[in-house]
Amino acid sequence: MWFRLVLTLLGTWLGHAAAQAQGCAVAPVAVLAVRDTAGVLTVTARLGGRDVAMVLDTGSEGGLVTPEAAHTLPVDAATAAPPVALQMYGANGGQRIARMVSVPDLQLGGLHVALAAVAVSRLPFQPMLRPPIAGLIGADLLSHFDLELDVAGGTARLYAPGCADPPRPPGWHGARAVGLLRVGDRLVGQAVLDGHAVSALVDTGARGRVVGLATALALGIDEAELGADSGGTASGLGAQPGFYRWHRFRSFSFAGHGERDVTLTVSRLDDVADMLLGADWFAAHTVWISWARATMWVR
């Protein structure tokens, strides 16, 4: 989703950033509990004075809140900005008109964030969780930090970018460093699929890895073969539902971690990359993502 939010990072992060500038100590500004529910990665937060879950979505250019969560915000928040047309990318793109609200205080652990204009929209998938899912945190916010994500360990940590700019995060010796291309606030890396290099959007908000239909066809998989695969239709943030197929590829590799005979989703993609590197991959790997250095470390 390509829209930018004007945001202000308050007290806690600014204090940590100042401390880092003086001593270059690497300490998280926020430590969040991560939950993996059927491929939906959420972190704990507080919004409108209530405990909530927020989808962690590095593949979204901006964040959003659900209509239910918007009702918990201050009354004057609803008049923060006029409605806008949001361009949706992904498995089924399109445009939709969304009203905007301001979020005066989103709490992520000890970090307090004020968002000047956030879209209000329903999510295409919303597991019944307690606390409930109130929206998603996108790359516009995450890009101000380094993100350490350990899904198996149930933890996400946000760090202010290191002032010393070390070659790798402290304690990550031996980890594989992967250079990324920054497109807006999103990050794209290179994967290898059936022996061919393909671009992969770093997308923790996608429930699984998704290969674009055009990419699959370019790899020599014909439509008749895909038609014989299992699949169906699914809704995304875009206006129209889209089809998908589960196809078995011979091999897949990213950051030197390879798999054989791997089943991935194939769907039409209207996005900046050939495929989405989704939550199923991140559930199996601990990563440190730095937007400032356009690098991801994997172990």
TrEMBL record:
Domain of life: Bacteria
CDD domains for the chain: retropepsin_like_bacteria (cd05483)
Secretion signal, residue range per the UniProt entry: 1-21
GO-annotated molecular function: peptidase activity
Protein name stated in the entry: Putative aspartyl protease
Keyword Transit peptide appears in the UniProt entry: no
UniProt organism field: Endobacter medicaginis
Statement: the UniProt record of this protein carries the keyword Hydrolase: yes
Keywords: Hydrolase, Protease, Signal
One GO term (biological process): proteolysis
Recorded coiled-coil stretches: none
